[in-house]
Amino acid sequence: MKKRLYPRLLVDLKKLEHNAECVLKECNRQGIRVAGVIKGCNGMTECAEVFARSGCTQIASSRLEQLNACRMAGISADMLLIRSPMLSEAEEAVRVADISLNSDIAVMKELNRQAALQNKIHKVILMKDLGDLREGFWEMEEFLEAALLAEHLEYLEFMGIGTNLGCYGAIEATVEKMEELVRCAEAVEAKIGRRLELISAGNTFSYPRVLEGDMPERINHIRIGEAMLLARDLQDLWGYDLSHMHQDVFRLQAEILEVRDKPTQPIGKVLYDAFGQQPEHEDRGIRRRALLGVGKVDYVYEDQLLPVDQDIQILGASSDHTILDVEDCKHRYQVGDIVEFQMFYGPMVYVTKSKEVNIVFV
Ligand SMILES: *Cc1c(COP(=O)(O)O)cnc(C)c1O
């Protein structure tokens, strides 16, 4: 089949490079090294290359497939696996990743065994849960026991500790949480009798500590994806001024396949939509609407798409259609016109994965 034109995703690597440089400059100035996290764009190796070139000390992903693709693409930065390895992938984790975040003792023993078989040293960072309630050791006693184990397993190198905040429990990475992480590191240091090389703050949601300049001094590592790929959450949700960065590294373009004046309220008895929801529609009389040849299958969250023409209102979507209200637009949209969107994290994850979205680097 001929390669389709639309929907297409424009990826601006120059803008990404600028974003990466902004984050790296801020972090490095404060003695913080940055792992460039590529899972938000499905591990696009082109983005990983930009991160590595800009000075990220590791390329990071939760998925070994993505890290392996980076290796295959010849990226020489250290590969960091940021999801604690499954027992069943320990062999691959050691083969593909130089470093992994860890939250289980049995897994670490298996990593050690696999590293011995591969005659390699695998580096580990132990995760401490500080209340976000996703991965990480909870009880201090078990955490210290794991640290001692990591220190003594022959084929593991115990690099340091880290935490993750924001992803699940949406807990804020406050100065207090960061100080708690440092205290955990100090407890580990007392236990193993030496200073840890690395204390890893968290993800994009810990970046405000860098922006505010109040990250505790001992924290020297952060794992950033979104703030470089989109630079949008901290600006639009948290109110930080990131206008010096580009929020449009990723732009989705879709083609209009129908334009018509129609009622705003569906006619007939309302049941359930294609996704089992009962939609509600405000009656605004007859208005002009446009249909796009792109849908939920491609981006899942239509409410996280941002039309570049701000007079466009996204009314909703089904699997393969997006329905727009274009009544108030200055431009008179016609069939064949292209509509462009910026996006939040959700659509980025899905459109970069959709086989039917044509990805074009600009
Ligand atoms: C996803 C993830 C990150 C990066 O998150 P961003 O919001 O993209 O910066 C960092 N650390 C861990 C453990 C993650 O799962």
Strand tally:
16
Average pLDDT figure: 97
Quaternary state of this entry equals single chain
Parts with pLDDT < 50 across at least 5 consecutive residues: none
> H/E series, N to C?
EHEHEHEHEHEHEHEHEHHEEHEEEEHE
What radius of gyration results from the CA coordinates? 23 Å
Give an account of the 3D structure.
The chain is an alpha/beta fold. The strands form 2 sheets. Strands 1, 10, 11, 12, 13, 14, 15 and 16 form an 8-stranded mixed beta sheet that branches. The chain has an 8-stranded parallel beta sheet with strand order 8-7-6-5-4-3-2-9. Strand 4, helix 4 and strand 5 form a beta-alpha-beta unit. The two termini are 24 Å apart. The model has no long low-confidence stretch (mean pLDDT 97). The chain has helices spanning 13-29, 45-54, 64-72, 90-96, 105-117, 140-152, 175-192, 207-212, 226-229, 233-237, 296-299, 345-351; strands at residues 8-11, 33-37, 58-61, 78-81, 99-102, 122-127, 156-162, 198-200, 221-224, 250-263, 286-292, 305-307, 313-317, 322-325, 338-343, 358-361. The structure holds pyridoxal-5'-phosphate. Pyridoxal-5'-phosphate binds at residues 37, 39-40, 62, 82, 101, 164, 167, 203-204, 223-227.
